[in-house]
């Protein structure tokens, strides 16, 4: 029986894989979400009084790319 890895290394772009939820070969669709680190950094800068710099992490820290199944909407993995 051939073994097929369900979880592959996900890149920043759409990936073709077999969705473990609906067991269908799909091309993932991606959504970007702010990196949780970004909020921490921004909060730290705010606390330190750097009001003007607190939005800088949103430009410097790359967002997390989340992959979803276009058929059933299952979350398949992320790439930061
Ligand atoms: Zn699916």
UniProtKB/TrEMBL annotation:
Residues 1-80 form the LITAF domain. GO terms for molecular function: zinc ion binding. Keywords: Membrane, Metal-binding, Transmembrane, Transmembrane helix, Zinc. The chain crosses the membrane at residues 40-59. One of its GO terms (cellular component) is lysosomal membrane. It holds the Pfam family zf-LITAF-like. It is found in: Endosome membrane; Late endosome membrane; Lysosome membrane. The keyword Glycoprotein does not apply. PROSITE patterns: LITAF. It is a peripheral membrane protein. Belongs to the CDIP1/LITAF family. This is LITAF domain-containing protein.
């Amino acid at each position: 029986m051939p073994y097929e890895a369900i979880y592959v290394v996900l890149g920043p772009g759409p990936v073709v894989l077999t969705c473990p939820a609906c067991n269908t070969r799909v091309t993932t669709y991606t959504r970007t979400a702010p990196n949780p680190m970004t909020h921490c950094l921004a909060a730290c800068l705010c606390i330190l009084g750097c009001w003007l710099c607190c939005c800088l992490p949103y430009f410097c820290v790359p967002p997390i790319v989340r992959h979803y199944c276009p058929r059933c909407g299952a979350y398949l993995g992320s790439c930061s």
